[in-house]
UniProtKB/TrEMBL annotation:
This is Chloroplastic group IIA intron splicing facilitator CRS1, chloroplastic. PROSITE patterns: CRM. Keywords: Chloroplast, Coiled coil, mRNA processing, mRNA splicing, Plastid, Repeat, Ribonucleoprotein, RNA-binding, Transit peptide. GO terms for molecular function: mRNA binding. It comes from Ananas comosus. SMART domains: CRS1_YhbY.
Amino acid sequence: MPTAPWMTGPLLLPPDHVLDFSQKQKPKQKQKRGEGDASSLTATVHGGRSRHAMRGIVRSIRSLGDAAPAAAEAGDEVAAPERPPRPWAGAGEETLVFGREKKARAPPTAAERRLPAAELARLRSAARGTERRWVRAKKAGLTPEVVEEIARVWRTRELAAVRIVEPLRRNMDRAREIVEAKTGGLVVCTKRDILVAYKGPGEKLLDDIRDSNCMSPTNYNRNESKKENLEPRGTLYERETNRLLDGLGPRFIDWWWKKPLPVDADLLPEVVPDFRTLFRQCPPGVRPQLRDNELTYLRMLARPLPTHFALGKNKGLEGLAAAILKLWEKSLVAKIAVKVGIPDTNNELMACELKRLTGGVLILRNKFFIILYRGKDFLPGRVADSIIERETVLYDQQLAEEEARSKAAATFQLVDGLLSNPCSIGTFREYQEIQVNHIDRKTELCEAKLKLEAEKVRLEKEIKEQERQLFNLTRKIEKSEKVLANLNSSRSSSDQTSDQELLTEEERQTFRTIGLKMDEHLLLGRRGIYDGVIGNIHQHWKHREVVKVITMQKGIQQIRYTASQLEIESGGTLIAVEKLRSSNAIIIYRGKNYRRPLKLLPDNLLTKKEALERSIEVQRRGSLKFFARQREESIWDLKRRLRDLEEEIREITPGKSAHPR
């Protein structure tokens, strides 16, 4: 039976061997690491499963493998028992490598395939000085102006440096392909965001580049399709996407992501003759609206899909709408990228126009992409035409049955005085009359009336809601006033003493100067005047004659009222009320005949807790009154709009003559 690497003997003992536990076992001598000790493999390796830990395990395995040859070279006479083969020995120790895999080498560029190695090396060494003078590309890609500027550089030099900007800078391989396709040259060097293009051995003139076939998107796409027909190029993903987009329109050459290239929606026709939105009909029992989980699923589904179209204009999208309707026969969603660097583009206008033309559902819109879902009620063109044709046949059949019924009823009617008007109850003619007289929604007048009626109902509901909110606010205001009345009942103002000390103008000016220079002050907060404030004033007057009270109130009348209340409650003399930088100071003199009261906290004022409750309640009542005033103004405005709307409805429906048929 095979044993584990760390065991020195077989797992099962022979029957003649008996373990004797009476004899003491000799302690094992510790072996050095790497001398055949298997514990080095299971020793603690710091780092968990990191790269450093893996290297440590590999070194331990190699040290165990090198222990056996080292013992043989030392000349051991006693042969060691044969060990079973290690689990990793069969695969070969040389293949047990945990190093980083090398990346696959990139395919050679067009310049490496066409130019000799010596010529390519010469051009790359010459390209070092051209990086300082470069032609700047546009955000929209390599526009004709950029290509013409490259051709002007080629008139004097054989190399032209092109600086690529966002968003094409994200994919420099794609930028190299675009430069080679539009200019007809070869990119010999790439450094960061600069491409150095070689004009080639032949002379290239500006007119030749402008009129070349590589500048035309149609010819470029035709050449690409010919190459793909000769041999399959690209991955299966690219080939399937190209097969899906074939026939929808020319491709967008300046695409800044990897292939496959999307369809250039700007090159599609702005007006399509006989264009109409397809007929839509939901299957029975299916709601056309999307739920939240369905919307999330569609967005997740559209994320890895390729981009189908690239759009850079706001109007004239009938050609794009026709292509989207054709694409929806094979795909659930249409993914449209918004071109970068084109002025006067608005993704909101694009989405609204496409939604109006196609009738789809907008599931995502931002400054990069517009994604449209075809909808649950989408029907392919052939299916929609067959349904319309079938409904037309049924309508004609109903007309024929109604005509036959009328003829049969006319033959059986009595010719005598019993002849009366034919009854149309339950017939197709009655259905038509109901449609024409009562449910005729096709006329503009009827549609306008329906919109006005809907707006009227909405305004009435909003008025009721505003009145309900106003009623609730009024009840809360009444409740707040009751709470304030209870708090104010426990508060009473003191009477001002008639025997007040008289101060001269010089004394007042002196006390005012002393009070303004004082660093010690008493801050009056949101609680206002309560028993603690009066007690702190008496504590200040214990050491000095003047007290300075700082208040953050803004209104001058409110500040004066606060100053008079402090003068009455404290029993001092008000010296001045001064305006500071961000607050106001109230200076009060204690008087010449001041005597410290036995009880600092007066009983006629609120406590600190009650003062805070009163302050909060006053603030709450003020907010409630503000919102109640807003509700009243809103109700008045809604009622005015409702009266104007009723006048419009009366003008539309004065009589039946106003309804055209």
